[in-house]
Amino acid sequence: MSARGAVLRRLYRTFADTARQRPGAVLRLALWSAVGAAPTFVFGHAVARAVDGFLAGRPAAACGWLGVLLLAGVAGALAFRPLYAALAAIVEPFRDDLVERVVRGALARSLTGRPDTGAVARLTHQVEIARDSYAGLLMVARGFLFSTAGALLGLLTLAPAMLLFVLPPLLLALVLFAALLALLAARQRALLLGEERLAERTAAVAEGVRDAVACGGEERLRAEVGEVVDEQAALARSMARLGALRALILALGGWGPLLLVLAAAPWLVERGAGPGTVAGALTYVMHGLRPALNTLVQGVGGGGLRLAVALERIAESGPPPAPALPPALPPTPSPTPSPTQPPALSPAPSPALPPTRPPTADPIPGRPAVELCGVTFSYGPRARAVLKDLDLVVPEGDHLAVVGPSGIGKSTLAALVAGTAVPSAGRVLVHGRPPGDPRHRVLIPQQAYVFGGSLHDNLGYLAPGADSAAMARAVDAVGLAALVKRLGGLGGMMDPGALSAGEAQLVALARAFLSPAPLVVLDEATCHLDPAAEARVERAFAARPGTLVVIAHRISSALRARRVLVLDGSAAVSGGHEELLAGSPLYRDLVGHWRSEPAGGLGDPDGVDPVARTDLPVDPR
Amino acid sequence: MKRDSLVLRAARRGGGWAAVLALARLADVAVSVLFPLALAHAIDTVLAGRDVLPALLPCAALFALSAAAGALLELGAGSAAARATAWVRHLLVGRLLAAGPARGALPAGEAASRITAGAADAGTAPVAAIQSGIALLQPVGAMVALIVIDWRVALGLALGLPVIAVLLRAFVRDVSGSVRRYMTVQGTIAARLGEALGGARTIAAAGTSAREADRVLTALPELRDHGHALWRAQGGMGGRGLVVGLLLQVCALAVAGFQLAAGRITPGELVAVAQYAGLVVGLGPIVSGLLRLARARAGAGWAAELLAAPVPEHGTRDAPPGPGRLEFRGVRSGGVLDGLDLVVPGGRSVAVVGRSGAGKSLLAALAGRLADPDAGEVLLDGVPLPELSRPALRREVGYAFDRPALFGATVRDAIGFGPEPATPARVLAAASAARADDFVRRLPAGYATPVTDAPMSGGELQRLGLARAFAHPGRLLVLDDATSSLDTATELQVAQALAGEFGDRTRLIIAHRAGTAARADLVAWLDGGRIRALGRHADLWADPGYRDVFGADGR
After folding, report:
1. What is the pLDDT of residues B190-226, one digit of tens each?
2. Any residues with CB less than 8 A from the CB of A125 and at least 6 apart, and which?
3. Secondary structure letter of residue B450 according to DSSP
């Protein structure tokens, strides 16, 4: 598929959608454009009559005709306001749709585990480019159409024979320009993509400048980024060469009719045309056709391509599931969600399928909080399984800690229980129902989510109806009081960027504490807290009615749990602390390191407060 | 002024193309001023019934000149801007890297957009300046031509000009306020989206995706209001501009018509008057050129802010032979470290502990000159760090961080990243020592897996960062909280490698865990901006204040 074909198709589709969805606005745009073209139509006639009038010694009549021109001008000017209002009625909803599309698409994609880091830039950058260039394109296109029509109509009524000399060069220029568009489109697209690549590279360098300097890799990075810079410069120069070609086409279309009309003028005069007619015909060419063509070539060359590329970028990153598509834009044959593509690999466990929302159903009384039966999970059909044939039952009211080396699949397990990942094989049940119902369980990941808004709104995120007494209890339980005080109460506004990672985690934890869900899954949700704060949080959740599953960041979490699940890649063992010490070499290993502290430490040897001994000195030998 | 000096220097890089652009623009203006005269002559020839061909020749010549000038104009403008932009970008990237981590609090995305958008603006500024400067000649030339044709017509037109100027000023004022409000709302929406994307796992689990989208989009109606206001302003301006422009043209035509009736000018000249009036009144291109210039200058200023960051200077000395003795003498920095003295003996490991905010990471940065102290000195084997050449400094000091940023296309490149890529054998050994070999081999393409495609947890990322530091030669190794995300068992294995294979290097280890401190030869306890104690962990442990550093006393 040729680049031009793609560009023109996309532009055509965009406009067709606009016409279908907002026919009123399009009609108004056309109507007022026609009124706006009145001065163009009148201009040549007025000049012709005025010249003849002045030459014939009838200055009053001549001035009358100039007055008509002025009136037409006033009418055209008055048309501008409704014209722009019609334009706004097309372009603003168009932008709204794009914004909505980017936002919902980015959110939907992030939920499947693919982080969408470019979304914010697309939102501010591409969407605005699309809006501005669509508006520009509409104005250019309607300007060209109506000005050209006005001028040609004027010419037709003034000196129809002149059309024979005006139309051929004009049409030739248009055809050549259309051919050039293909080349321009390809180059422009490469240029825009290159800019994005450059922005990505420089952002990565800026982000990691500390590491770059520490490794002494400045020269290498400078050369690497420099290469992209030079590629862009080369592309820009080749665009300039095409621009030169475009200028030649413009010259042909603008000057050709003029010279031909001049050359044909004697012939016209022989047939009885007066000075006025000649002057009027030339006026149509110079004041009507030339500016119109000029605007078209400059406008479409730049704006049309920018719009097509921006729309393509937005569509490529559009929402993968069809239902989220806003009605504004048709589903485009975008290459992104290709079914043959393996799911993206990402640090967070990503499900092979988007999370399915099970029908809402109440927990089945008497069933365990969590049941896993022969559960296997892998990122793709050929990838090594992260979890294999896992069986696990967590009774209601239990407190389970999951331990194991990093990267062994603990977070995947959390995601499976929460229903945000779907097993490749086997079955997961929560309270006897398919997992994923937010009323049955709450999952707090390592990366705490805090949004700009009041502390109250943040805490009530999972329990919108919670009263202030409940909130106070939650704040107290997880140890969030200091932050509440600093913000001046629950109504205090939070700037997520101003919170420390630990504070953000406490907010997320208090939110989970308030949630009515009977099952709580903490996936290293306390990793930025100090050991004492972590202990307080875990004890608070253990005392909360319901079931607690803790993906442990520190081994101390295991000692607080009633039962421990040890994941070590090949097998999973669960049991009580003593049981595992006897039965799991890995567990012994993990805890052993912790225990082999030099004598004379502190804390309670009977383990009433195990956290006091977390990460105590370890003898390496 | 920094901004204009950047624009001027960029302009020089445009070189010959800038001259081509200027000449082409001049030719273009000359054509537009001369053509109506040639046209007038041709029309009058036709009306007089003489042979039109000789009169057409000047027109055709001007046509050829105009076509050539138009083509050269595009070529010159594009090429000059491309060259100047590339030059500014090279300059900014170089400066970004040379200034290093001390560049201040400019977020990465900001820096990136200055290098892309800002530099492009700065690169266009010379072109915009030439274009709009010469464009000013066009109405002047047209006015002169009008005076030549008939001074009365010119006078009539000149009287109307101030009206246009007033109109344009009002427009710019109207629009800039609306634009600012529009952009503010847009920024709000973007910021909210950024937050929500950061909390994707929470949102996925809570099933609140639709609610989040609604929250992000709350401000959309407000955005639309500001957008409509902007279009209204433009529409109003367009209408007023049209009517005023046309009014002036009609005035000029009326005056010219009476002159025509009086026989003072010819019909051809009347057509020329309409042309010239259009040139004088059509300030649009000039105004848009000036607006573009203003934007380009603003962009250049924005980009030039990157140049404000100071660039550390390096000496010329090579590191003398030595065991890697690191010494801090009376170091003051960032209002945190206050007269700190510390000696890290060569070939030994020293763990730095202290409460958060005590300045541990600052100390790590100072150790390898990722930052310079406000006062005092840091010496490696007796040589103050600023006296070392940059290659020598970077060769001798290796770093591993809490959250390393990886560079290079593949995992292998990322581990071997440095002035010279490390050999595959060295990469392998380093990865094994950092306990990264095992998980790297499980990646889709092992060591050849693109970094961007590698699913990595925080702990795995840290292990790659450690491997990179291990692959780096040199006598001093600084570990800034570089094992914080490792589980206890892995951390122990890494510690063993650190004590074994890398035992001959001096190691400065920023530690949060007591276990890490316990394994170091010595512990430097950082408190109140100085070293409160330097000793063995087992000895210090008796001090409750020391234990308190690890939060080990519980509540």
Report:
1. 888 888 888 888 888 888 888 888 998 999 999 999 9
2. none
3. B
CA dihedral A65, A69, A72, A77 (to 10 degrees): -150
Taking only the tens place, the pLDDT of each residue in A568-589 is 766 788 888 888 888 887 787 6
Residue B308 to chain A, least CA–CA distance (Å): 15
pLDDT band at B553 (very low <50, low <70, confident <90, very high): very low
Give B51-62 as a DSSP string. Answer: -SHHHHHHHHHH
A186 contacts A305 by C-beta, under 8 angstroms: no
- No. of helices (H) and no. of strands (E), chain B: 22, 10
Residues A497-515: pLDDT tens digits?
778 888 899 999 999 999 9
Residue A563 confidence (pLDDT) above 50: yes
Q: Please, what's the b/e burial string for A509-522 (b: 16 or more CB within 10 A of its CB; e: otherwise)?
A: bbbbbbbebbbbbb
The answer to whether domain B326-549 has CATH 3.40.50.300 is yes
Residue showing tokens 């260039």: A133
Contact between B250 and A66 (Cβ < 8 Å): yes
In the predicted structure, residue B163 carries a pLDDT above the cut 80:
no
- What's phi and psi for B324, nearest 5 deg? 100, 45
Query: CB of A579 within 8 Å of any CB in chain B?
Result: no
> What are the C-alpha distances in Å from A426 to residues A159, A166, A363, A376, A394?
84, 76, 20, 6, 16
Mean pLDDT lowest for which of A49-53, A611-615, B46-50, B66-70? A611-615
When pLDDT is averaged across residues A455-474 and rounded to a whole number, the result is 89
> Closest Cα partner for B464 from B501, B512, B412?
B412
At A134, is the pLDDT very low, low, confident or very high (cuts 50, 70, 90)? Answer: very high
Give the residue ranges of DSSP H helices in A271-354.
275-283, 290-299, 305-316
Rounded Cα gap, residues B69 and B63, in angstroms: 10
Q: How many CB pairs under 8 A join A and B?
A: 521
Superfamily of domain A3-321: ABC transporter type 1, transmembrane domain (1.20.1560.10)
Residue ranges of A 64-103 with Cβ closer than 8 A to chain B: 66, 69-70, 73-74, 76-81, 83-85, 87-88, 91-93, 95-96, 99-100, 102-103
Burial of B16 (0-12, 13-18, 19+ CB in 10 A): exposed
Nearest C-alpha of chain A: how many angstroms from B415?
10
| b/e code B160-174 from CB counts within 10 Å (16+ = b) | bbeebeebbeebeeb
Q: Which of B66, B75, B190 sits opposite A251 (nearest CB)?
A: B66
- Comparing CA positions, the residue from A248, A192, A189 lying closest to residue B75 is A248
Sheet holding B375-380, edge to edge: B337-344, B326-333, B375-380, B383-384
CB proximity under 8 Å: A 114-173 to B = 115-117, 119-121, 123-124, 128, 131, 135
**8 A C-beta contact, residue B157 and residue B248:** yes
Choose among A449, A416, A384: nearest CA to B455: A384
C-alpha gyration radius of chain A: 36
Task: Determine whether A542 is exposed, middle or buried from the number of CB atoms within 10 Å of its CB (0-12, 13-18, 19+).
Answer: middle
**What is this structure's pTM?**
0.75
Closest CA to A439 of A467, A465, A457: A465
Domain boundaries, chain A: 3-321
Q: What tens digit of pLDDT does each residue of B105-129 get?
A: 567 777 887 888 888 888 888 888 8
A 10 A CB-CB count for A167 gives: 15
SS3 (DSSP) at B398:
strand
Sheet (strand A547-551) strand order:
A441-444, A519-523, A547-551, A399-403, A563-567, A572-575
